[in-house]
């Protein structure tokens, strides 16, 4: 029972504190590794990749996945519902009393602070992922290639996963000692 | 005119199935299904909901769905829309998660995921760039950004604690600044 309450609280919290779309939830999902060890860093990055490639909003996909890692199917359902309950409440309050968000000093100030904070938190996760995954010459080369490509090509995530996945297989085949 | 909960649920279920990727991707789908096909809301409604959804916490797709659902059938409509949009993730992700462990025992699948991890880093980087454009607009927001990174990397505080600290510092500054302007 305790795990259900924990799951609810953690994902409800993410629903309140993340601002700026699905990727903004990643720092919170990363924190769950430290706090509860529900999954590993490698599993988190697998979850992110699959969530981007699966139909549905990325943020909800990731929450469902993370929930599944804790207590299976019931965890998956509970996590995704807990994540959207704050949205539901906030939207109804705004629609009912028609708060003029842009004009209210306090709401504007809170958003002015939450947005750069969310951006900083995501930057830190990016740095941590680099530390975890850029460990040899192969990963460094792949990251550099993808980085250059990101300035030349479209933003469609499929391209990056295609290049990443094919590179993984090729390195595995041609450099068996790489451990990849 | 109230739209039936079943219709709302089914329409958002269909949007969820076609939705691939995050953020603005939902807009063309909403335009096709909710505006052009069903004529439930107007273009102006949609752009208003999108703007609002970006400036409140939560998953943007869930926020837009809730705003639209609320307009169509009040609080119940909002619930039907949200449930519709999260049905696809729940089913597809559970399905994938069940077979994933078996797949990961195959060595070349592991190699694909090794490459995908590096791709994830680039996608996070692209997302940071996009959020940066909407959030870092002056010295104040840049300082909040820097403080967040320092707090996180040097003290390894949790995101929730960091948000409370930056909110505290930021609100302190904003309120003082406002009082000075009023003098």
Brief digest:
The complex is a heterodimer of chains A (180) and B (183). By secondary structure, chain A is mainly alpha-helical.
Question: What report would you give on this structure?
Answer:
The complex is a heterodimer of chains A (180) and B (183). Chain A has helices at residues 2-17, 26-36, 41-53, 58-97, 105-133, 137-152, 157-174. Chain A has 180 residues and is mainly α. Chain A has 2 domains: 2-133, no CATH class; 134-180, no CATH class. Chain A is globular and about 65 Å long. The model of chain A has no long low-confidence stretch (mean pLDDT 91). Chain B is mostly helical and 183 residues long. Chain B folds into 2 domains: 5-103, no CATH class; 121-182, no CATH class. In chain B, helix 3 packs across helix 4 (60-103). The longest helix of chain B has 44 residues, at 60-103. Classes of the chains: A mainly alpha (180), B mainly alpha (183). At the A-B interface, helix 1, helix 2, helix 3, helix 4 and helix 5 of A face helix 1, helix 4, helix 5, helix 6 and helix 7 of B.
Question: How do the strands and helices of this protein lay out in sequence?
Answer:
The complex is a heterodimer of chains A (180) and B (183).
Chain A: H1 2-17, H2 26-36, H3 41-53, H4 58-97, H5 105-133, H6 137-152, H7 157-174
Helix pairs in contact in A: 1-4, 3-4
Chain B: H1 5-18, H2 26-37, H3 43-54, H4 60-103, H5 107-135, H6 139-155, H7 159-182
Mean pLDDT of chain B: 92
Q: Mind telling me the C-alpha Rg of chain B?
A: 21 Å
Radius of gyration of chain A: 19 Å
Per DSSP, what share of the residues of chain B sits in E-state strands of 2 or more residues? under 5%
> In terms of quaternary structure, what is this?
heterodimer
Number of domains of chain B: 2
> What is the overall silhouette of chain A?
globular
The total of beta strands of chain B comes to: 0
Number of strands of chain A: 0
Mean pLDDT across all amino acids of chain A: 91
Order of helices and strands of chain A: HHHHHHH
**SSE series of chain B:** HHHHHHH
Helix content of chain B: over 70%
First-last Cα distance of chain A: 40 Å
């Amino acid at each position: 029972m305790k795990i259900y309450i924990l799951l609810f609280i953690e994902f409800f919290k993410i629903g309140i504190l993340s601002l700026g779309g699905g990727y903004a939830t990643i720092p919170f999902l990363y924190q769950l590794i430290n706090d509860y060890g529900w999954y590993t860093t490698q599993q988190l990055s697998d979850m992110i990749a699959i969530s981007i490639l699966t139909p549905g909003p990325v943020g909800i996909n990731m929450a469902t996945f993370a929930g599944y890692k804790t207590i299976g199917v019931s965890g998956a359902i509970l996590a995704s519902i807990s994540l959207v309950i704050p949205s539901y409440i906030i939207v109804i309050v705004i629609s009912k009393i028609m708060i003029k968000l842009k004009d209210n000093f306090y709401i504007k100030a809170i958003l002015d602070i939450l947005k750069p904070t969310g951006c900083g938190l995501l930057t830190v996760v990016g740095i941590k992922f680099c530390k975890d995954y850029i460990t040899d010459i192969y990963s460094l080369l792949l990251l550099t290639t993808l980085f250059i490509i990101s300035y030349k090509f479209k933003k469609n995530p499929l391209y990056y996963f295609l290049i990443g996945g094919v590179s993984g297989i090729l390195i595995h085949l041609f450099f068996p000692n790489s451990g990849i | 005119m109230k739209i039936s909960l079943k219709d709302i649920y089914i329409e958002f279920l269909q949007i969820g199935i076609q939705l691939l990727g995050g953020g603005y991707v939902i807009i063309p789908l909403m335009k096709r299904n909710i505006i052009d096909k069903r004529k439930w809301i107007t273009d102006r409604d949609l752009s208003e909901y999108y703007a609002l959804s970006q400036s409140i916490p939560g998953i943007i797709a869930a926020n837009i769905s809730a705003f639209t659902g609320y307009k169509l059938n009040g609080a119940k409509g909002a619930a039907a829309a949200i449930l519709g949009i999260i049905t696809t993730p729940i089913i597809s992700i559970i399905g994938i998660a069940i077979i994933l462990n078996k797949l990961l025992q195959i060595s070349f699948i592991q190699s694909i995921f090794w490459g995908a991890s590096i791709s994830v880093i680039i996608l996070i980087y692209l997302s940071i760039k996009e959020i940066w454009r909407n959030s870092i607009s002056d010295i104040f927001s840049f300082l909040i950004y820097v403080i967040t990174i320092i707090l996180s990397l040097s003290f390894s505080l949790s995101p929730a604690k960091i948000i409370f600290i930056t909110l505290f510092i930021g609100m302190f500054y904003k309120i003082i600044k406002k009082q000075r302007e009023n003098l």
